[in-house]
Amino acid sequence: MTDLWWKSAVVYQIYPRSFADADGDGMGDLRGIIAHLDHLAELGVDVIWLSPVYPSPQDDNGYDITDYQDIEPVFGTLEIFDELLAGVHARGMKLVMDLVVNHSSDEHPWFVESRSSKDNPKRDWYWWAPAREGFEPGTPGAEPTNWGSVFGGPAWELDEKTGEYYLHLFSKKQPDLNWENPEVREAVYDMMNWWLDRGIDGFRMDVINMISKVLPLPDGRVTAGSLYGDGSAGFINGPRLHEFLQEMHAKVFAGRDAMLTVGEMPGVTVDEAILFTDPERHEVDMVFQFDHVWADRGADPWLLVPLKLTNLKAIFNRWQVGLAGVGWNSLYWNNHDQPRAVSRYGDDSDAYRVASAKMLGTVLHLHRGTPYIYQGEELGMTNFPFRTIDEFRDIEALGQYAQAVDLEGRSPEEVLTVLRARGRDNARTPMQWTAAEHAGFTTGTPWLAVNPNYPEVNAEAARNDPDSVFHYYRKLIELRHTEPAVVDGDFTMLLPGHEQLYAFTRRLGSTELLVIGNFSGDTVTADLDDDWSGAELLLTNLPTAPKDLTLEPWQAVIYRRT
Ligand code: TEU
Question: Which secondary structure element, helix H or strand E, spans residue 198, and what is its range?
């Protein structure tokens, strides 16, 4: 069992660029993180996941790496990293690094060599292909497949020098590594071992379900109105993925204790996730699935689909039931790629921001799985009031906007409406520490504007206020550490057809927990078959306990009976 320590753990994600700036250059850094470790220790989290801090031209804020075994100078040095690691361990926490090995930066020496000539020994470390038969390189439609890249434009870039194209599922500065080549895999495993030997406690694996591609690379389906084909069937959950993950496990994790591995897997299904997370198969401990964060997106990417609570509940229920016997869930509302949870799923108005942020935390943390908190979520940080496209910095927002507006003829306003609601920069505005200038994030000019609500929404204010989101999250984390039913209890969804209430039970032996969250601004009564009148109220997010399961707007409750 010790092996599965992460079942009772809570993970906190740091996006280093936006967390805390110690040297005044406007960009977060490792010394900034060191200075705030007590904030995390007080919150009570067990693990810190650090988004990439490796040397990088920062085309995709560090998800484009030029050296896997060093620290980006803007963030610090390896010595400062060791200090950070020691500081984390000294507080009884663990540190998990981001592993970005579906692609590297185009400035990585591996790719520089690979592109230098067709017969370079590293040529085959990346995906190179000639123009489509019958096409001149560089002419429209000459790309080896019709795939679009995630950040807009085609997934292939012509390299003039050798006249061939290279594949990049993300930006053209993020060429895909060729995992078919055993030398690539060995180089990655060596690098992982080097970090683990240095003392880190595991990895969050970026788009790890894209490393195996279907051969030969197939064209994707083109939908009306879009310029490119959807190549996902050619690279999501590819034919050798399980083999690669098992090999990685054998060469890196086998024999190491108390590690945590989580695979980020856009498009993963429940059935596949059972296989990935079955401990007997030695692949990964848990995966990030995307079903709930894709629930407000339809076939047309530039139309917002209103979120229905019944849909959200059906998704979570499917994952809870599916991974009940074998496997394990990771639980998250947001991260550095998603808008702020309270703005998306709650109500970020003055009246309900605090209540709804706490309600969302309650519902998420009481599911079966390992909860992930994204920096600032514990303060109830909100989306940024973006007005124009110039205010965005994210390569995804800018690239998708350019494709949609300049090439596909969408109206700027329709595209901006979606970016305001869903753009990744919502999550990337600086962490709000104090009511001082720039929210205490930096003494310089922040690389991305601070949310104007920082005088009210900040860590200092939250720590001083016993009724803050921060202290409520502290209690939720403590509950996971003290109540075994939160960790191991069976999950049963209640009221699946209710559009306002999210209700479920967790049962372990003779202990039963009832969790209800009101996802609305109305007062609503939960009509349950069961009588919970004698149960103990463990936690609620409002000053008053509900009577007869009648919940105030955005109220959440946890009852316990034995
Ligand atoms: O994200 C993977 C991913 O699927 C994203 O495209 C995400 O779904 C999308 O941006 C949501 O709008 C990972 C990282 O988390 C992300 O920050 C990187 O940009 C991406 O991989 C490439 O490394």
Answer: helix 182-198
Distance CA 439, CA 370 (A): 30
63 touches ligand 1 (CB under 6 Å): yes
The Cα 520–Cα 523 span in angstroms is: 8
Pocket test for ligand 1, best of 13, 51, 150 (most atoms within 8 A of CB): 150
pLDDT (mean) for 464-492: 98
Q: Is 266 in the pocket of ligand 1 (CB under 6 A)?
A: yes
548 backbone φψ class: left, alpha, beta (φ>0; ψ -120 to 50) = left
Report d(CA 502, CA 97) in Å as an integer.
Answer: 33
Q: How far apart (Å, rounded) are the C-alpha atoms in residues 405 and 462? A: 41
Closest atom of ligand 1 relative to the 103 alpha carbon: 23
Q: By three-state DSSP, how is residue 524 classified?
A: strand
Are 493 and 302 a contacting pair, CB within 8 Å? no
- In contact, 268 and 209? CB cutoff 8 Å: yes
Pair of tokens at residue 310: 């019944």
**What's residue 3's pLDDT?**
66
Q: Are 155 and 161 in contact (CB under 8 A)?
A: no
Structural contact between residues 368 and 320, judged by C-beta atoms closer than 8 angstroms: yes
pTM beyond 0.80: the answer is yes
Domains and CATH numbers, the chain: 2-103+182-472 (3.20.20.80), 109-167 (3.90.400.10), 487-561 (2.60.40.1180)
pLDDT at residue 224, as a whole number: 81
Mean pLDDT calculated for residue range 525-541: 96
Are 480 and 8 contacting, i.e. CB atoms less than 8 angstroms apart? Answer: yes
Token duo for residue 506: 């967790």
Q: Quick one: pLDDT at residue 223?
A: 86
State the average pLDDT for the chain.
97
ipTM computed for the complex: 0.97
Interatomic CA distance for residues 547 and 26, integer angstroms? 50
Distance 194 CA to ligand 1 centre (A): 25
Q: Which atom of ligand 1 is nearest to the CA of 396?
A: 10
- Rg (the chain; Cα; Å): 24
What is the CB neighbour count within 10 angstroms for residue 463? 16
Per the DSSP assignment, residues forming a β-bridge with 94 are 47
Instruction: Give the residue numbers marked as catalytic.
Output: 206, 264
